[in-house]
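Supplementary Note 3. Input sequence used for the single-chain structure prediction.
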Amino acid sequence: MNTKKRLVVSLTIFLFVFVVGVTGFMLLGGPGTTLLDSAYMTVITLSTIGYGEVVDTSHSPALRIFNIVFIILCLTTIAYAVSSITAFIVEGELKNILGRRKMDKEIARLEGHYIICGGDDTSATIIREMIATKKPFVVIEHDKAKIEKLAVLGPVLAVYGDATEDSVLEKAGIARAKGVLCVLPTDEANLFVTISARSLNPGLRIVTKCIEPGSHNKMLKAGADVVISPKNIGGMRMVSEMIRPATTTFLDMMLRESGRVLRFDEVAIPAGSPLAGKTIAESKFADATDALLVALRKGGGKDFTFNPPKTTPLAAGDVLVFIATPEMIGELAKLAG
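The predicted structure, written as discrete structure tokens, is reproduced below.
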């Protein structure tokens, strides 16, 4: 029996013994014994304080026998309760409960965050990147051992449960989330989460892992924005290492450099932005940060203009792609309004 169950059992026994004491003193204490007298006798006996008796036990041998048995029962109950409470505190259950409540409050305050469904090695890679780029996120995983393993990577907010259940997704704040990453071990589970997530938040961006090629189109139909195949990614990485090793090494260095976090990142121009109608030169990105503008996608389009001319006008809905640190992206987002 774990310490939490022991604590519940000890409290139940404590309440039971109290009721037995009150009942016994009421039945055997004589006609003048009140409910308050019986409760008082029970409390001083159960607590082993031993103040003066308000119920005279000298007139009734049966009451004395009951009192002897009740005292022994109280000592046993107190010993069990003290050991259970001590174990509860020493073994960290109380700390875990308080930590869980604190984490739930932090999750409830999140907005525009990302939800990671699953706690495997792929999730660990995602979490490292989220922490490095300072993105808010929540992990959903039913296995506490996996969450504890992920926690060594850094501060990880987690919800224990099955990500395919709507109530668990809601607890992770899916209505306020910006995106969901489905990295569960089976295509069926990822497909189910995709359907649930899309129904709970139609504006959500959903990226899901696909193991079998036949599941790709099903996940897109279910509502996934992007479907990632680890097999295809692995194959592309291998061929890149073979035919363009310098480029691959550059990207690796950018991702793994410990002193500075540089990433390809993006900034969108929202409606009403002070940059709308200005050219790239007039926007003065270079003056605000050292971020390097590498591409531009015009609002509503799918094609990118690489190294766009500085005379290019900006409009609401445009997306600018930079090589920058998370701090630079934050400054650029403020500049874009």
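The mean pLDDT is 85. Residues 91 and 302 are 56 Å apart (CA to CA).
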